[in-house]
Amino acid sequence: MKEIFPNKKALTKVQVAVIVIVIVVAAIGGLVYYFSQPSGVTEKTEILLGHVAHLTGFYAYEGTIAAHGTMLAVDDINAEGGVYVEEYGKKLPLRLIVEDDASDPEKTKIATEKLCTVDNVDFLIAPGGSTWNLAAVPISEKYHKLCIGWGGSAEELWTSGFKYYFGFTTVNDLYSATYYAGIIGFLAHYEEWLPEGAPPPLTVALIGMNNAYGRCAVDKMEELVNEFGVQTVVMKEYFDPKTTDFTPLITKIQTTKPDAVIVVGYATQNTNFFRQVIEMKVKEVKIWCPSCWFPQYFLTLGYDGLEYFFDQQYWINYLSDEARDICQRAQEKWDYDHSLGYFAWGYDGVYVLAQAIEKAGSLDTEKVRTALLTETFHSITYGDITFQENGVPLVENFEAKVPIRQVVDHKQVVVWPPEYKEADPIYPPPWDEKYGS
Amino acid sequence: MAVETTQILSSILYGLIEGSLYGLLGVGLSLALGVMKIINLAHGPLAVLGAYLFFSFIAYLGILPVASALLSLVVVSVIGLVIYLCLIDRIVTVESSTLIVTYGLEIVIGNLLLSMFTGATRTVDLELGSLNIGGIFIGLNRLLALVVAFTSIIVLDFVSKKTYLGKAMRATAEDIEAAELMGVNTRKIYALSYLLCAFLAALFGLCFITTHSVDPLTGSLLNIKAFTITVLSGGNLGLALAAGLLLGFSEIILTTFVIPTAYQHIIAFAILLIVLTTMYRRKRE
To answer: CB pairs below 8 Å between A and B: how many?
Structure first.
């Protein structure tokens, strides 16, 4: 049999001695470190928060803006002296440790493990989307760390029996029922905006990423379409989040010829997808809707290419003065528009947690959890918020505001709902005129 | 759902473009396997490195696309040569060691790119517009990539058959000892072959970033596709193009008309499994 290492030699005495010395030094170092650690309960000087963020990778645009939310909330709370913790009889400042997972769920696991064991954080702010939450939360549960999720919305997060997970966005409740109801409502109420003689949009294609979030969102949208009962879903298709070539999917859409196409993707995928739609000059579809959180990023495709595309924007611009003020400060600090849901949720993650610690009067996980389950909290996103036993948020008197916008003449204008409308939608888009018949 | 002729033709055209790109990718890996008998897992990451350099020269240094492309090709080729001389040359005869070293290179290059460029996906928009071919709109960037891929493979085929370098490479691939006896400097041929592999990888990277998008870890996915093509072609350069076209057509046609789009990346694995299983069975028989 062929040897794998044909040149292998026995270790020399010197090599053995070096290995033994290294092992002995490492062992002594470990013991010294162990015994030098103070024993027993020590006086707390700060509250440690750990946040696994998507600062790089294909989810970085969303992840960074949410991390800015958590950072600004920490700054705001510390500017007031920190969080009052009754059991210590004083205010403790927050210290945020941010770990980048490069949008890779495997790295999310490693970073969460590190925050729980090496940094020994008191609480965790979960990473962004559902996929990463589902990677992180089993680890935070293992270490009994309370984890606040700002972006995970897949049902699995709420039905898997996680005890210490609380979130702000659920597909079936707040998030999709509001966000996706925007575009589906726009389609369903076509009689209110349809130009005379124009063919109504009666068929819809729902396209989503093939991950926990994409699948849940597409299912929820289908449910909403069926609830309104005006359109028919003629196509449901998923794509791998790492897809870079969308031409087969776009050709498939051309073959199906739906009136409207709604795409659930992150900023990067949406941009790639629509770059190829523009390249292929697909004329069969009347309404293209990228459900994109980052219109600014999306618009890098160029207004000329995006003309007549519809997009939906979550509500922050239409929120309270308090929310607007926070967004304004973020914009000044980081020099770009932060008026998006993700920023607010990131902010709320820390903001609500700080209130829960104060109400619990303790940093003990169980006590803070009990406070989250029994008290009412103020959030900049939803106003007053409470949590159910499984961590699902409950909100009363919250009115969703999801304006639908269209790019016309190098400008994004709101075309729906009527109370925010700046212009009538252009429908059907004059594709023949634009691309040639 | 009635499928129109234009959609079938569109899929064929896109399949041809994707397939030719895969062919270009596979040719490089096949060259390394054919001549040096190594499975070069640094191939995909070198392609991504080429793509990132191309992107950086244009976006950060404002260099014209053509000059950026040439610079990227030169830089990656030199890096390939350095990798060969510093690492692979010492272990080229030990198959398992080259596999481990190139796997290490895959990780190192991917993570270096990650730390330098972050994980954000990048693309280079040459802003060439689209061409209307009988009602099928196709980006000129894709057509350019198609021309580059085919031309490169044809040139490579010519070099391997008609030049001294090509003949020496083929001789080394067939019987290294006989080649040495005939006066071929096989060490030099190995080094030049690896340089050529790096050049082809970079050329693919340039075509890829103008038609797709790239992130620092795309190299692993590219390796799987390149490896599938190499297994299909058995390290034969001519067959590598055919294998690339087969993979490209399979991906585009199947995901457009037969299976859900989400399974696009499974096709390469499926082909690989079928081929390996069939080969193993045939060998046993």
So the answer is: 109
